[in-house]
Fold this sequence. Notes:
Elements: E1 7-10, E2 14-19, H1 35-47, E3 56-57, E4 66-72, H2 75-86, E5 91-99, E6 106-116, E7 121-125, E8 136-150, E9 153-162, H3 169-176, E10 200-208, E11 215-219
Parallel strand pairs: 4-10
Antiparallel strand pairs: 1-2, 2-4, 3-4, 5-9, 5-10, 6-7, 6-8, 8-9, 10-11
Amino acid sequence: MEKYPEILFEDNHLLVAVKPAGILSQSDTTGDPDMLTLLKAYLVEKYKKPGEAYLGLLHRLDRPVCGVMVFAKTSKCAGRISEQIRNRTVKKKYRAIVYGAFEKKQGEIRSYLLKNSRTNLVDVFPTRSEAPKDAKECSLDYEVIGEGRIAGVPVSLLSIDLHTGRSHQIRAQLSSIGHPIVGDRKYGKGPNRFSGDILLESYHLEVDHPVSHERMVFEIPLSKEEPWKQFAKE
């Protein structure tokens, strides 16, 4: 990573940046680098601000996941975008490489999730009748957009449209149907032949500008690194 994360867009109201894999969304007890602190430092340096710059954290990505994140540069804009998130008008899509081939090339996964405080993992229940009353209904749509192999093992490249944004939702739901994400140390049940980061990224984000109300779309291209590049279109 360069000194600061890649900036996709910036004006007086918003800052949109790419979170690299391995970087925290916000600081924690480890003291490791995080997006919020890095981007505040970027603003202080760029605009020669005295003291600390304001930057509102609006959503998070898991530490091993890379992808597009949007931040608010004023508290008013933070409130407006947070309302969009609550109303589910902010649209996010993910790419993931998972183990196995799919018979059904597109479909929906709908199940009930509950955080297990003992294991710090999310438990998945296929139906409401099987789920504890505190479990939350979650759903996503997937589409198979590529097929390949990693270390001789069949894998599929998915585009995922997330309808609900629960913690670890994509990772837990895909694992529950027998297609864990390659590199997922928490939920992975596939062949242990990949030592790299989890192959999951938030590649597409749509949000209404909090002042102009223009629909803004941000997307990062498929990585040119292995094992992603095997899915690149010629």
